[in-house]
Amino acid sequence: MDAANPILRRIYSMKGGADECREVYETWAATYERDTLEDMGYVGPAIAAETLASLLPENAVVLDAGCGTGLAGSELARRTEAVIDGVDISREMLSKAAQKGVYRTLGEADLTQPLAIDADSYDGVICVGVFTNGHVGPKALGEMARVAKPGAALVFTVHQDVWASGYAEQLERLAANGRIRVHRIIDAPYHEKEGYRCRLCIVEAA
């Protein structure tokens, strides 16, 4: 992390809460891709998109949950013909995502709350960069499973620093309740220039 970058310092010290998260990302939108892709070596979107692309059916409709500026959506669009919808908490980030031209719809949403999306709506869900310090906690996994069709693939990253804060337990609960099947949890690169890794989770909605 560039210690001279005040936005990055704040990102890593966030305490959580929708208002703080929205404010930070509204400010960060203009330099987000430079800071993450160039300065941090952010490979999470490409790795997650490559994984989900291999699991989607033809004519798939996918939700990019916490889409930010559209990094994961763009990577998925390069690899598939999927129709992609995106949601994010920041209007400025959504504006950047819209410029990529890969989304059918984009909408504002707080992933810590129930989504205004019907159950069984998507053939796949991708979520990258959301499950990290001071952002969205493991309870959001239940909503992502809800909006996915039975048999749909869910691919998401969990930053190494927060994995121990209830993610394995939440996946176990959802599986025990018959809502998901956990296929693989892989230790994967995340921010290569900073040495951060993540858990790449591949789950099937039930």
Structure description:
The protein is an alpha/beta fold. The chain is 34% helix and 29% strand. It is built from eight helices and seven strands. The chain has helices at residues 6-12, 18-28, 32-39, 44-53, 71-79, 91-98, 140-147, 167-176; strands spanning 61-65, 83-88, 105-108, 122-131, 148-159, 180-191, 196-205. The chain has a seven-stranded mixed sheet with strand order 3-2-1-4-5-7-6, with helices on both faces. Helix 6 links the parallel strand 2 (83-88) and strand 3. Helix 4 runs parallel beside helix 5 (71-79). The protein is globular and about 45 Å long.
Question: Top keywords for this entry?
Answer:
seven-stranded mixed sheet, alpha/beta, single chain
Supply the helix-strand structural class: alpha/beta
Quaternary organisation: single chain
Proportion in β-strands: 25-35%
Task: Tell me the radius of gyration.
Answer: 16 Å
Number of strands: 7
- Unreliable residue runs: none
What is the averaged pLDDT score? 92
The coarse overall form would be: globular
* Individual helix count: 8
Helix content: 25-40%
